[in-house]
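Notes from the 1:1 (GR / supervisor)

We went over the backlog. Supervisor wanted to see one worked example end to end before approving the batch request, so GR pasted a single chain during the call. The sequence is below; no edits were made to it. Supervisor asked that the structure be written out right there so they could see what the output format looks like.
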Amino acid sequence: SEDKPTLLVCWWTTIFCAVLILLRIAGRFVRTERLFREDKVAALALVPLFLRMGCVHVVLIYGTNNVDLNGVEVTAEDIRRREIGSKLVLVSRVLYAAT
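Structure output shown during the call:
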C-alpha cells in the first residue's frame, strides 16, 4: 500500500510521455501526410519507455536488496523477490538510456 502512490505517478508520467510522442507523430503526419525518420525514431522510443516502466513496476512491488531488515523475519521467497527486483533495477537503467 505504501508503493501505490509512487506506482501511480510513474505510470501516469509514462502514459503522459507516450501521449506526447503520439501527438507529435500524428500532428506531423496530418501536416505532411508522411512520416520522417525522426518520427519513426520517436515512435521506437515508446518500446523502451514501456519496457522500463514494466521493470520499475516489478521493482516497486518486489523491492530490492538495498534495505535494512534487522529484526524482520525474511522468507526465502522474500529474498528471491528482492534479488529479482535488484536485477531489474539494472535493466531499467539500461532501458532509460535507450529511451
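Supervisor's comment: The chain has a mean pLDDT of 91.
Batch request approved.
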